[in-house]
Amino acid sequence: MSGTTGDRWTCWISWILVARVWRQSCFLGCVLLASLRTANAAPNFNTQDPLAFFTGTAEPMIRYSTAQWCAQGFSDYTNTFGTLTTNAFSITNIPVFINGAFVYSPAVNRLLQLAANVYDVTTNSPYPSVFSPLFSSDGAGDVYITGYTNVVPFADGAADVQLSAPTDIAALAALPSFTNLTINVYGVPWIIGAKKGLPNFNEFSMINTLSVKRRLMMTRPTTNSATSVNLAAFHTNQMYMMNLSSSLGIELWNSYTNNYPDPVLIAYRENASLTITNDEPGFELDVGSQPLIFSTNQLVSLNNWPGTGTSWLAGNPNPSSFVVPLNASLVLMTNMVYRTSYAPLTPGTLPAGFPAPCLISANYFGLFGIPVLYETNTPGFPFPQFGLLLTNRLQVFILDLDTSGVYHVIDYVQFAGPNSAINVNYNLADLDNAGNNFGTGVWDTNYTPGSAAPNGLTYGIRNQIAVSKSGSPPAEDGVWVSDAQGMPYNGTIAQEQAYFSAFFLPGNKSVVPVAATNLQLAVQAPYSPTRYVVQYFTWQANDPLVHYLASDINNSLAANAVAFPRPGVSYYNAGQIIQPLTGLNLGLLNDRYAPWGGNPHFVGEGQASQLDTNIYNLAERDPLMWHSDNWNFPSNPFSTFDWIGRIHRGTPWQTVYLKADDVLATTGLSAWEAWTGNFNPFDAINSAPVQDWHLASLLTSILNTNPVGQLVSVNNTNLNTWLVLLDGLTAWTNSQSDVFNSVLISSNSPQAAVIVNAIQSARSSFPGQSFGDVGDILATEQMTEQSPFLDWGDVGQQQSGITDEAYEIIPSQLLSLLRMDSSGAVAWSNGQLVVNFTGWNVHPYAIQVSHDLINWVSISTNYPVNGIFSYTNSAAAGSTPQFYRTLLLQ
């Protein structure tokens, strides 16, 4: 029950009615926490203790948010955080690895990032605050973050123990129980405050190329044999040869116009493993073909890191602003022959020690320079399911060396990925050749009519023979790959085809285009189709300040570059050219880079509409945030409270969101998932901009210095009270792009009346016609997007005129003047009724009781703990109904 200005009656409930409803709803602890809107006071202004500030700010945000998420979708909640996570959690028990699954959540990481960003705006240090997690395990394989510690400056550079090589989470989970272990874990980021002007990790790229060549050998019993006489006497043997190579690149970027003047030390640890697998039991790789592991540790020093300059606004940043410490290409496997266990090999035997089946180096045998590990065509043409498995582990950090010889971490990432498993056969098969036509589809594995499996010929093999005799390769494999070792004609395609055709002719002689005689008992087909399976990863930052999780940089969008390959897995023929990493995106402006107005390079090419349809969507990114220099993070924020909307929120190109539009409603969940890289729908929703409504309310309650007793209830229905509250607040008006006039709002102005009426209208749309939280008032569009003080209806002003601060100036001031009513809920405990209320910590509340809603009696005075206080009623069931309310005493 809310009163007029100055009233402190905050809540009343009937224990009989409400208890009945509560008992029928849910017994989960997270639901109770979610239903009680906590309020916290005792502002934490100790900026001399960054860890206490960080944890003190993150704790209530995590506890409140996870209670909300749990109550709103319990099944999705446990699917996201593990079946053991059935209640709200806090900064002291964040799930990381539960029941064998990695469950660390981007939505939770964003809350931690926001807490660090809040702290960093309170300091004048040029260096960001840095916090690393502490891990604990229950000994049963479940791992949690149970706190954080400061990453302190140090003098020993990259050798400092704080920068030690990370471990895999599965290896950590396998250890006996431990508590508050300081260790780096791949995939679990450090929390680094958002500071303007610092270089950052920007991209990891990788291309893996597996080539598969199929060679054919034709045999016959005598030199006089001809297919026209005895087709069955001709045998077709095959050989599969494989090559595997990889290219890796790491890119860092100074995304700001100015140079970064301090000396920096860049270090990276890269470990990638590529493995060929198949479904034959006992399959192994030839030891001579290894290693399939790429591992390197490197240090790079810079004394002055160039900035982008100003030309990059047209999509051409200074190339020197990009630092590429790693751009390596390596051959992991060369001319490896696949040996199957299902068919004998001819001629010869393998050296001792080589199991079957295996991939073995081709140079073990030779006949006319030809490896002779051909499989006979009995029983058929086996080619089992091949796979290509990738695991990657990457650690990169940037250290600033100050004038006293001390290093400061300015960026740090540790990724468990990219990881993948490719079905090689799927990419070899001619899936687009459904017609099974002769003359096309040299990788078609279906059997031709009359050629029953497993001994008959496939379309692919018959077509390879046909191309080797005459004709051209099919479109899928575009060019002729000459493979005519040991032939007397090793020249033109026509000569090679003539010699091979003579093998099948009566008299063993061809007449066109040359008189070719072939008296061999075995001959190799001159045309060997070669298919290249290409896997291209490009992990790119969109906003340079958001790059700590794999989801932040995993590029889910198609590459804008026209070069081959594109992100993902594809195949190509020997005639195509794979662009090097530097020809794709490495060392260039990221394709995924998309501030307000879109990627400047592609906007200049007129491609923005097809690549990024939300370039002016203020629900997705901050208006007029054209590039990194446009950030306007607050300084000395506690002198006023209009700074909350200028703190980076932890998703690309957006500060704490105080506007009304919901990106999930206007753009859709799938677009938001693509924008953030978070494809868990439940978790993506929990990081949506409108989630900031309640976080802003919570941060206000934590950091607000205004006396609680003087705050106005957000559910006050008196219009005059609201007009008085707006009186004297600052608004911005715009007459032309980027030009604003500051005006003071007058309580008797028509603009103030528009805003107050809109607040009442917005409240009426909420359940019970009441705001459930102070942040719910942000649903009022007339305070932001449709402010009567702004010329928001003009398209030019929307795109190029109105800043995010101009939109949010009114609510950023108003939030600190409002309080939430104390809310109540009831539950049964040990046969007694427990009434739970929310309230502001440190402030006293009286609980009052009444039988008739007229006469009230105070029965206790309470101080909330963690925003909650309780009263236990021992009245017997069936007694006279009682009503409760709380009174804020001071």
List keywords for this structure.
34 strands; alpha+beta; disordered N terminus; 890 residues
Polypeptide structure, described:
- By secondary structure, this protein is an alpha+beta fold.
- The chain folds into 5 domains: 1-32 and 823-890, no CATH class; 40-196 and 676-705, no CATH class; 202-427 and 531-584, no CATH class; 600-675, no CATH class; 709-819, no CATH class.
- 20% of the residues lie in helices and 27% in strands.
- It contains 21 helices and 34 strands.
- Strands 8, 9, 11, 13, 15, 22, 23 and 24 form an 8-stranded mixed sheet that branches.
- α3 (50-72) crosses α4 (74-81), α3 packs antiparallel against α5 (106-120) and α18 (719-726) crosses α19 (750-764).
Topology:
Layout: E1 9-14, H1 15-23, H2 29-35, H3 50-72, H4 74-81, E2 94-98, E3 101-102, H5 106-120, E4 130-137, E5 143-150, H6 169-173, E6 178-182, E7 191-192, E8 200-219, E9 235-253, E10 264-278, E11 284-285, E12 293-302, E13 322-339, E14 345-346, E15 358-361, E16 374-375, E17 386-401, E18 407-416, E19 420-423, H7 424-428, H8 459-469, H9 493-502, E20 509-510, E21 516-517, E22 522-524, E23 530-540, H10 550-553, E24 568-573, H11 581-584, H12 600-604, H13 608-611, H14 663-666, H15 669-676, H16 681-685, H17 692-703, E25 712-713, H18 719-726, E26 730-736, E27 739-744, H19 750-764, H20 795-800, H21 804-814, E28 818-819, E29 824-829, E30 832-838, E31 845-850, E32 857-862, E33 868-873, E34 883-888
Parallel strand pairs: 11-15, 25-28
Antiparallel strand pairs: 1-34, 2-3, 2-5, 4-5, 4-6, 4-7, 8-9, 8-22, 8-23, 9-13, 10-12, 10-17, 13-15, 14-16, 17-18, 17-19, 20-21, 23-24, 26-27, 29-30, 30-33, 31-32, 31-34
